[in-house]
Design goal:
The protein is α/β, with parallel strands linked by helices. It has 15 helices and 24 strands. Bound molecules: uridine-diphosphate-N-acetylglucosamine (UD1). Uridine-diphosphate-N-acetylglucosamine binds next to helix 1, helix 5 and helix 6.
Length: 432
């Protein structure tokens, strides 16, 4: 049964929220975990749908997966019996392609259903395939499957034509068990790349330079057991930072690495919100209407595309005219129509949104178009006058752990209801 969120806006969020482990790191790390025949323990795992789908996928090919608790899993790849993965669920998560790099590195062979994920524009995988070919593998796409095979993988010098998180991680996975030395130039520098590299190194890989645009990998013949804790999710943290500012609240966001949040912090400060940094927490508060700015999404350390819908939503409430340029994915303004129904004034021209700030939103029945935009619309509902209902929240559940519970603990009036629960809706309206 499909669920929806119902909200009554207008409560400033106050209190403390603890951030979960980074989904996009965890996806790479789970794939990497099957590359050893020894048992790997992964902690601070976010309990979200994308992660559970990927765990099911590796179980499906024979890996042993023991869920110790919601946030801890033990994986053993020695029982893998198949290098082909094709079923519906895997097509729905983008990161299923990490199994290509992991299986190719370990078994020199892999077939994985072509990835899906959020519909935020065309999402080619040519750079992943280019990397695999440079290591000496064949790589073809046929009948909706990506197939890759090598007699032997040999280290190589690879220059990425575009800065790609996925291609960087995938090539790193395959190359860490290739013969000899690989250099990835023009590599992506996102914190999750560093996290996956640290994890692989803790398994005995030899990867240097992750977090810079030149990654150097010396191949090893085997990887071993490890215990590892995933870094905090900078996008979940950033979403709560925006929620604090948008509701004119005061929130301490715990279990974060403030450095990873700088692009968002700097913009919040620029438009007038207050941001205080601690060792592993940030406090965001604001009491007055914020100002306008210009934003352009860029690869890390630039402003993250995954924070673009949330920030655009905030700028829609701010004074003056802002512009937001989306330079990573061409179709990432699909939430604009929904936000307009709540009163936002946004005009999209090509990859630029011109946002004329309005003093407030009004509640409406809207649909989450994808993961991050869905979260942005929920925050809009927490600001809006009256009742907002957001459906298609399955997208939000892909990447936000217990979103409504964390918001509720900050004072938000929000409930998750089945879409046909008319009585629940009436009850919420009466109580709110
Ligand atoms: C990852 C994140 C996603 C985030 C994005 C950018 C995961 C699971 N997802 O997605 O949340 O929005 O990084 O920070 O970690 N490109 C090519 N050819 C390729 C690969 C990519 O042209 O082979 C292009 C894409 O179309 C896009 C750009 O490169 O314009 C960046 O994409 P990429 O960094 O690969 O994004 P993902 O890894 O898919």
């Amino acid at each position: 049964m499909e669920n929806q969120y119902i909200m009554k806006g207008g409560v400033p969020l106050k209190g403390e929220v603890t951030i979960s482990g980074m989904k996009n790191s965890a996806l790479g790390i789970i794939a990497a975990a099957i590359m050893t025949d020894e048992t790997v323990t992964i902690d601070n795992l976010p309990n979200v749908r994308d992660i559970n789908v990927l765990l099911d996928a590796i179980k499906g090919i024979g890996a042993t997966v023991v869920r110790v608790d919601d946030h801890k899993v033990r994986i053993n790849g020695s029982t893998i019996s198949d290098v082909a993965i094709d079923y519906d669920a895997i097509r729905r998560i983008r990161a299923s392609y990490y199994l290509l790099g992991a299986l190719l590195g370990k078994y020199k062979e892999a077939s994985v259903a072509l990835p899906g994920g959020c519909d935020i524009g065309s999402r080619p995988i040519d750079q992943h395939l280019k990397g695999f070919r440079a290591l000496g593998a064949t790589a073809t796409v046929e009948y909706g499957m990506v197939n890759t095979y090598a007699d032997e993988l040999t280290g190589s010098h690879i220059y990425l034509d575009v800065v790609s998180v996925g291609a960087t991680i995938n090539i790193m996975l395959a190359a860490c068990m290739a013969n000899g030395r690989t250099v990835i130039e023009n590599a992506a520098k996102e914190p999750h790349i560093v996290d996956v590299a640290n994890f692989l190194n803790s398994m005995g890989a030899s990867i240097k330079g992750a977090g810079t645009d030149k990654i150097r990998i010396n191949g090893v013949s085997r990887l071993h057991a490890t215990e590892y804790s995933i870094v905090p999710d900078m996008i979940e943290a950033g979403t709560f930072m925006i929620a604090a500012a948008a509701t004119k609240g005061d929130v301490i966001i715990k279990n974060v690495i403030p450095k990873h949040l700088e692009a968002t912090s700097v913009k919040l400060i620029e438009i007038g919100a207050k941001v205080e940094e601690f060792d592993d927490a940030v406090r965001v508060y604001s009491s007055s209407r914020l100002g306008h700015t210009q934003i352009k999404t860029l690869p890390y350390p630039g402003f993250p595309t995954d924070m673009q819908p949330q920030m655009s939503m905030l700028l829609s409430l701010s004074e003056g005219t802002s512009t937001v340029t989306e330079s990573i994915f061409e179709n990432r303004f699909k939430y604009v129509d929904e936000l307009s129904r709540m009163g936002a004034k946004i005009k999209v021209e090509g990859n630029v949104a011109i946002i004329e700030g309005v003093p407030g939103f009004t509640g409406a029945a809207i649909t989450a178009p994808d993961l991050r935009a869905g979260a942005a619309l929920v925050v809009a509902g927490l600001v809006a006058d009256g009742i907002t209902i957001v459906d298609s929240i399955k997208y939000i559940e892909r990447g936000y752990e217990a979103f409504e519970d964390k918001l509720k603990a900050l004072g938000a009036k929000i409930e998750k209801l089945a879409v046909d629960d008319e009585r629940g809706v009436q009850k919420f309206k009466m109580m709110a």
